[in-house]
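Q: Could you fold this chain for me?
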Amino acid sequence: MTEEKWNQSLSDQESTYFKNLESKILMAIWNAYGQKTVKELYRVSIEEFRPGSVVAIMQLLFENSTIDPLQPLQEEMSDGSLASIKVNPVLDVDPSILSTATSMCKQSINCCLLLG
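A: Sure. Below is the predicted structure, expressed as structure tokens.
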């Protein structure tokens, strides 16, 4: 299991370091939702990384009718890992930091994932 450390390159979305870590996280999240028979997760993106070990600011877009959309991700992280990445087992979904928007057919959830 890898423990991610902050690197200034994570501030640059075009850097190889940013893209590699983004790819590892996105693949792990898609795999967490891949076991579902109904497509609930439509899009996931890493908005930015912030220092503090490493904090990934993410946006996940779900089918609007999805009940408890973060459950598969939270179950995957419950042991303190997301695939091979060491993570805090609790997602931070704090509307005072990040907004949550909804539309007629999709719901968007912004959250923080603490790595390391």
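A (continued): Residues 16-33 form the longest helix (18 residues).
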